[in-house]
Amino acid sequence: MALQLDVVLTKEKKEKPDFTQLGFGQHFTDHMFIMDYSAEKGWYDPRIVPYAPVTLDPAAMVFHYGQAVFEGLKAYRTKDNRILLFRPEKNMQRLNTSNERISIPPVDEAFLLDALQKLIEVDQEWVPSAPGTSLYIRPFVFSTEPYLGVRASHSYKLLIILSPVGAYYGDGMKPVKIHVENKYVRAVRGGTGNAKTAGNYAASLKAQNEAKDLGYEQVLWLDGVEGKYIEEVGAMNVFFKVNGEIWTPALNGSILDGVTRNSVLQLLRHWGLPVYEKRISMEELYEAYTRGELEEVFGTGTAAVISPVGELSWNGNQLRIHEQQVGELTMKLYETLTGIQYGEVEDPFGWTVQVN
Amino acid sequence: MALQLDVVLTKEKKEKPDFTQLGFGQHFTDHMFIMDYSAEKGWYDPRIVPYAPVTLDPAAMVFHYGQAVFEGLKAYRTKDNRILLFRPEKNMQRLNTSNERISIPPVDEAFLLDALQKLIEVDQEWVPSAPGTSLYIRPFVFSTEPYLGVRASHSYKLLIILSPVGAYYGDGMKPVKIHVENKYVRAVRGGTGNAKTAGNYAASLKAQNEAKDLGYEQVLWLDGVEGKYIEEVGAMNVFFKVNGEIWTPALNGSILDGVTRNSVLQLLRHWGLPVYEKRISMEELYEAYTRGELEEVFGTGTAAVISPVGELSWNGNQLRIHEQQVGELTMKLYETLTGIQYGEVEDPFGWTVQVN
């Protein structure tokens, strides 16, 4: 039976926040999408309703066994007042990849994308227009059954909430300092690293805090087996420009298959640059650095799009990248991607989807 | 400032379930303990209140970044109608170990244990009396701040809920069949394996489901680095009796420090048996098996106390243990531990704590 989307509009719109002081993930729009799952009915009762709290039994399994996954994407307002999504179908696909890994039943990706578009339409006045601002979109699923046995839940909720967010680089793009993590591990082969599960993020907080205490903005994660090979930076994928080549860690099951990562790879190949997805050891990178061949380093992710790295700290060695300035390729990728996202640069790949 | 426990009793007691058909973790008592945390106030407003749903903003961080930990212990009714807890201070300690690993602020262990005792007193008629039944106790903590940035939450809730549970071995103790997992990994050095975090359990579900589909009741987890060394069985610690010696995997950071595991070790040493906490490879165990020296295998955990293992399936080899019957040591440990828990066997270690 096809799902029928129900829409209940709010009777009282919220006061809008100051759109010049949005920050990230603090303000939420007037409405949200919500849908339920039960073992008997499957996913049912999809609806757009006023943004409201969720009420759960204290025994709801999400609090105990952490079956929870999420996605993150953005809607962008163009200068001619259209609203664009960037490759949203990739996020819907990955939501199901994450669901599968922790035994949450799959969702209908096309239906969910339609519902998302409708939700944005309903809350379109929340899509900010100042340069660099956007509407952050957070779909997420969690288990709700009140039961303390360890098994997959028989009931779930899926929500989409929307948050207008400020420009990531409000003060201009500034390279970050990264601590190469050699104590904590984010993910391992056979684990959940390639899924966007809540538990992966909880597990990462302590390392992030310790890196911050040492004066670094993020950690660079190494593989869980040998502690040698580069995986991700913070909650981003990572790229290296080495002697004219561009390297990024190959997807190996413990690295997230980032939408921005995938887009950067396509752009670089489109530009005819030599790109390698491969296993990269920190040692190999350090050797390239000592030869003066480590030209640029940047992270990729939905929030920042492209995040230049100015310094890597590894086992007492400080690798200063590109004189701690933003590299040319880094900047070109940032401008091209954000240009496509905001409808200002030609989109040769058909990546953007216009909200009606 | 010392925390002051507030008690609000329910006006309408629930109808009790059939205490001969309790199952596990499905029924909850009339009251619960709850306490809040904010960055400004620390832990505040501890209270015993009627069991009731929890209301959260959809952006509450627990749904997204999974900062959630829990504990599990039991209260036992003795034949002379006292109520005993088993080493509850160990669970409070471990709660803080888990908190620390995923950046949740610590709780006052002594205060929480007092509050737990008061809660059980309030709901004492829910402690069942039939043989093997008990009151399962679930303390848990989760993040509540409505914010989508990836960092530790600034607010939390800690709850304790109580659930009367049936006898684990209602139909008698029966050895289980275990699948040695060689595809999925539960935890790795540098990860969260020794913490009781929600995400660890979410990550384990898929392997459990696949093992069930193959006809096994549980998985035996191997280490995440080499995939060779034994870690845990399902959500239990594991012991092997090999040629008169008793072996269990040494705590290595990725194995949970089980209260039952610790108690079994103390009992075995008290009995003068040769006990080794060490790294144990599946290969070494298989060799012992082929020499006819693998005499008994059992899991240890709060729910089952002792769970005999009758078969291990490893890379196509079926290891049948003790003719798939419960071993003598396995049974002696079960009877001694449950005897102490129910106040029927002398408690030389001072493990039990009486609820007033």
From TrEMBL, chains A, B:
Indicate yes or no for the key word S-adenosyl-L-methionine.
Answer: no
In Swiss-Prot or TrEMBL terms, this protein is called Branched-chain-amino-acid aminotransferase
On the tree of life, the source organism's domain of life is Bacteria
SUPFAM superfamilies hit by this protein: D-aminoacid aminotransferase-like PLP-dependent enzymes
Entry keyword annotation includes Amino-acid biosynthesis: yes
Question: Which metal ions or organic cofactors does this protein require, according to UniProt?
Answer: pyridoxal 5'-phosphate
Q: What is the lineage of its organism?
A: Bacteria, Bacillati, Bacillota, Bacilli, Bacillales
Q: Family, per the entry?
A: Belongs to the class-IV pyridoxal-phosphate-dependent aminotransferase family.
- Give the pathway annotation: Amino-acid biosynthesis; L-valine biosynthesis; L-valine from pyruvate: step 4/4; Amino-acid biosynthesis; L-isoleucine biosynthesis; L-isoleucine from 2-oxobutanoate: step 4/4; Amino-acid biosynthesis; L-leucine biosynthesis; L-leucine from 3-methyl-2-oxobutanoate: step 4/4
Q: Which PROSITE patterns match?
A: AA_TRANSFER_CLASS_4
